[in-house]
Amino acid sequence: RIPYDARRQYPCLRIGMEIAAALRDLFPNQWDSRQFLHLLANDAAYDAFLAGASYEELAAMWQSDGEAFRVRREPYLLYPRRRNN
Where along the chain do its domains lie? Predict the structure, then answer.
């Protein structure tokens, strides 16, 4: 059990990815990474993760995917997007 109460100081996503990377690196034959694909929900990110990509590399992939999604959805929004999001 790991207590977690400093969300801004220690982002959940990064912590989870670093733990998964440690499991991948330390226990490559024992850790069943197939379930991790369900969490990532992105085949390209999963393949990159299995190939040893760092958190920074994966986050860069997500950033570009996220920006493309925001641009694609803009015409369909009922309300203007708030600028602080």
Answer: 12-76
